[in-house]
Amino acid sequence: MKVDFHTHTADDPLDSIPYSAAQLVDRAAALGYGALAITLHERQLDVSPLASYAADRGVVLIPGIEQTIEGKHVLLVNFRRGAERVNTFADLARLKASEPGLVIAPHAFYPASTCLRGLLDRHADLIDAVECNAMFTASLDFNARAAAWARAHGKPLVGNGDVHRLRQLGTTWSEVDAPPDADAICAAVKAGRVRVHATPLAWREAAGIMVDLLAWRTTAGRRIETMTASGSTNISLPQSA
Q1: What is the pLDDT of residues 181-216, one digit of tens each?
Q2: Where are the domains of the chain?
Q3: Are strands 194-198 and 172-176 parallel, antiparallel or unpaired?
Q4: At the top level of CATH, which class does the domain 2-202 belong to?
Q5: Handedness of CA 180, 185, 187, 189 (dihedral sign)
Q6: Closest by Cα among 103, 35, 20, 16 to 65
Q7: Which of 82, 102, 172, 204 suits a disulfide with 159, CB 3.0-4.6 Å?
């Protein structure tokens, strides 16, 4: 089964995403995906209203969230309740003890302050899988350290698009040996029945995606400056990752 465990939609409360969850499902179905986890920043989307729409197109929707835990991004996939309230790694340990969800370290060694990097060693027992992120080229690949860490710690590697634009879907993904069921898919990953398919981006393609994302952030920043000048407060620019 072709799966992506790291996607965003227009429902994201932090990032500006130019497509709906239904449009994401349509694109995934066209590319032969069998399952998707929708992982908004700091919010777990209720995927049940869209489940039958996705099922009609051969796609299993998996609940998830890209949660900030002690300043670092972590993917919490297929937890039924409580994922939005995880703020510390102690909270995460309690969540894992209460529910059989899947914890993935996204873009673990990328050069951003929200990436786990050295904290992976400290919290290795809480991590079920490590992400191979689609944003890489043949000559610049921050996933190499993630793959090495996963091998050294006996953790599976999963391929994810970290999709913020639909054109990001389909270059890096996970092949999971499981039936079309969210619980079974996550259990298969934990058992190591997953294989990464990853195609490096051409520099021009990678640059185009980054320019698109950064252009939005620049526009958003200008809007924030205008709102601040007019008297609005407590406004912060969201971080894309």
Answers
A1: 999 999 999 999 999 999 999 999 999 999 988 875
A2: 2-202
A3: antiparallel
A4: alpha beta
A5: positive
A6: 103
A7: 172
